[in-house]
Amino acid sequence: MKTDNNTMINKTEQEWKEQLTPEQYYILRQKGTERPFTGKLLMNKEKGVYKCAACGNELFTDDMKFDSHCGWPSFDREIAGGKITQHEDNTHGMRRTEILCGKCGGHLGHIFDDGPTETGQRYCVNSVSLEFVKAGEETPAATAAPANNIDTVTLGGGCFWCVEAVYEQLDGIIKVESGYAGGEVPNPTYKAVCTGTTGHAEVVQLTYDKSKTSLDEILKVFFTVHDPTTLNRQGADVGTQYRSVIYYRNAEQEQKAKEIIAALNKEHIWDSPVVTEVTAFDKFYKAEDYHQNYYQQNPEQGYCRMVVRPKVEKFEKLFKNRLKKTH
């Protein structure tokens, strides 16, 4: 995932030991965990900003925090702009997603898909990893979208590298995650999904700010950058894992998807009818860490040059007024 426009901080472990307290070093640098229900920020309800205790990177605001009763401070989203990075964590016999400060790489905790708000996320964070600044003492560098402006939709349009690369540039998209959905096999691997026997499709899960973009716009992009008329394939990528599909989370999303498909078929945009599935969302499994932000990390890889880049360039040309601002 992308980091913000601040310079990455790189220090030796000795330098971190000199800067941090022993407990901070254990958690932030050695990926430790504080005992549940002991953190000083667990019950904090004051207005303000939560920063990385190691580098001051602004991570969360008070309106993102909620009581999860899990024993650690919990947040339903992060301040936009790549403040946090994610990595697969297979330690302790579990498969989890670790969250780290995007500026210094300090360990914060883990993220789970069991949050109670509209984002569906729970950032479970160690108090020791955070520094809290009360409102009025310092102005936040970023303003978060209110929770009621946040929504999520899951889309499959062929290889998730292509779809992810496009939506990472659309203004209003808060988070893009590549993964798998629609199948019967729990916790599938990329290798298994590629066999076409798991029932899963390669998908991207989009978290977006409805005050900056809309489902209508997101679906217009979707139908622009892939071919929705080819059953279980996109170009040379063939198999049910490459099917065109929209996994809706509510009646509004279902209705909008069906309306757009009906309009496209009526206007005969393509010679063949749209075969995109419109299916109720069930479960999303995040793909392996190396698949996240794949095009940005591997722009000169053969598939990226030949397949992903033309889709990105098409999007940039047709939606040039809707690109995220860069610094």
Automatic annotation (TrEMBL):
In this chain, Zn(2+) is annotated as bound at: C52, C55, C101, C104
Q: Which Pfam families match?
A: PMSR (PF01625), SelR (PF01641)
Provide the leader sequence positions: none
Q: Which reaction does it catalyse?
A: L-methionyl-[protein] + [thioredoxin]-disulfide + H2O = L-methionyl-(S)-S-oxide-[protein] + [thioredoxin]-dithiol; [thioredoxin]-disulfide + L-methionine + H2O = L-methionine (S)-S-oxide + [thioredoxin]-dithiol; L-methionyl-[protein] + [thioredoxin]-disulfide + H2O = L-methionyl-(R)-S-oxide-[protein] + [thioredoxin]-dithiol
GO MF entries? peptide-methionine (R)-S-oxide reductase activity; peptide-methionine (S)-S-oxide reductase activity; zinc ion binding
Q: Which residues form the active site?
A: C124, C159
Name the SUPFAM superfamilies for this protein. Mss4-like (SSF51316), Peptide methionine sulfoxide reductase (SSF55068)
Q: Which cofactor does it need?
A: Zn(2+)
MsrB domain residues: 13-135
One GO biological-process annotation of the entry reads: response to oxidative stress
Q: Which UniProt keywords apply?
A: Metal-binding, Multifunctional enzyme, Oxidoreductase, Zinc
Q: In the Enzyme Commission scheme, what number(s) does this protein have?
A: 1.8.4.11, 1.8.4.12
| InterPro entries with a match to the protein in the record | Met_Sox_Rdtase_MsrA_dom (IPR002569), Met_Sox_Rdtase_MsrA_sf (IPR036509), Met_Sox_Rdtase_MsrB_dom (IPR002579), Mss4-like_sf (IPR011057)
Per the entry, the cofactor note is: Binds 1 zinc ion per subunit. The zinc ion is important for the structural integrity of the protein.
Q: Which NCBIfam families match?
A: msrA, peptide-methionine (R)-S-oxide reductase MsrB, PRK05550.1
The UniProt family comment states: Belongs to the MsrB Met sulfoxide reductase family. Belongs to the MsrA Met sulfoxide reductase family.
Q: State the PANTHER family in the record.
A: PEPTIDE METHIONINE SULFOXIDE REDUCTASE (PTHR43774), PEPTIDE METHIONINE SULFOXIDE REDUCTASE MSRA 2 (PTHR43774:SF1)
Tell me, in a sentence or two, what this protein's role is: Has an important function as a repair enzyme for proteins that have been inactivated by oxidation. Catalyzes the reversible oxidation-reduction of methionine sulfoxide in proteins to methionine.
Report the protein name in the record. Multifunctional fusion protein
Q: What is the taxonomic lineage of the source species?
A: Bacteria, Pseudomonadati, Bacteroidota, Chitinophagia, Chitinophagales
Q: Which gene encodes it?
A: selR
